[in-house]
Amino acid sequence: MHGKKVWLIPDGFLPEDSSGKFVSHEAVCVLNTGDEEARINLTIYFEDKEPMEGFTAVCGARRTNHIRLDKIANKDGKKIPVGVPYAILVESSVPVVVQHSRMDTTQSEMTLMTTMAYGI
């Protein structure tokens, strides 16, 4: 088993527009090397309003899960708003490794950004 149970991603942003055939999106990429499935909880923090809670996902034992942030909804059916900066708290039931990636297709020259989350 590798990783940590708590991870922080300070920079999140879902663009309002996309160009071409690809959709701008972000993903919380989870790697679970252990023998037990990981139950993942995401809390979304904003600059000027209360956090959004209740986003959940599962990463199977010895598996990966790329949690698309433009597609996930919380327990109330609400999605992460577009065009608004946010940050993410990732909590896992077992140690995992977390990476954050962003595909920005707002221009025809797409960009891909990825970085390791901060594990504590």
Report on this structure.
This protein is mostly beta strands. The protein has one domain (4-119): TM1070-like (Hypothetical Protein Tm1070, Chain: A), CATH 2.60.290.11. It is built from no helices and 8 strands. It has strands at residues 4-12, 25-32, 38-46, 52-59, 63-68, 86-104, 111-116, 118-119. Strands 1, 2, 3, 4, 5, 6, 7 and 8 form an 8-stranded antiparallel sheet that branches. The chain starts with a strand and ends with a strand. The mean pLDDT is 89.
Descriptors:
Hypothetical Protein Tm1070, Chain: A, 8-stranded antiparallel β-sheet, mainly beta, 0% helix, 120 residues
Summary of the model, kept short:
By secondary structure, this protein is mainly beta. It contains no helices and eight strands.
According to CATH, the fold-level topology is Hypothetical Protein Tm1070, Chain: A
Counted by DSSP, the helix tally is 0
Mean pLDDT score, rounded?
89
What characterizes the major β-sheet?
A: 8 strands, antiparallel
Total strands? 8
Order of helices and strands: EEEEEEEE
CATH architecture: Sandwich
Write the SSE topology:
Layout: E1 4-12, E2 25-32, E3 38-46, E4 52-59, E5 63-68, E6 86-104, E7 111-116, E8 118-119
Antiparallel strand pairs: 1-6, 1-8, 2-5, 2-6, 3-4, 3-6, 6-7
